[in-house]
Amino acid sequence: MSPQNGLFITFDGPNGVGKTxxxxxxxxxxxxxxxxxxxxxxxxxxxxxEILKKYDEAYRGYSLACIAAADxxxxxxxxxxxxxxxxKIVLSDRYVESSLVLQRIDNVDLDFIWAINKSVLIxxxxxxxxxxxxxxxxxxxxRDTLSVFEQxxxxxxxxxxxxxxxxxxxxxxxxxxxxxxxxxSSIEENTEKITKRILELxxxxxxx
Length: 208
Fold this sequence. Notes:
single chain, Rossmann fold, five-stranded parallel β-sheet, 8 helices, globular
């Protein structure tokens, strides 16, 4: 069973919010319903993605923003679009929301970030998960290694604020944004909410 035109769903949110756990749970839910689902992520495993993962302290600001955008267009061209043509439900761990937040924290102008990202593929559903700065800090403590954007606890509130701003900004660009608090509600509850929303999209696409 697959939606007629495939579905593209993105998961984003502050570092430590639990988006990867939620994504994997949604993946399991959809697979249990015999749906054809594919997980992907940004940065990708391409050479561009490896630069982002390994050299995020060497490349900063505008240069890092450009590398992130280039990796995203590669992702769309080589991974997302082919899977959608195969009528798969594509779940992406991070997408353009990350650039609208992390690059702003890195002192890049919002207009510049959007100028190099405005031609991205618009997802069928853009999920943004949130939690309190305290909860984000506690969850990040359990990680063995932290990226340059995860190391500074003082940016947690700014990161949350920028995600809310990104949600409103992307809605104006035609994105279907779904914000979920991943602290006040349980992971199980949020998994079910997202699964239900995706099934509604499939039903609507199939004309039921």
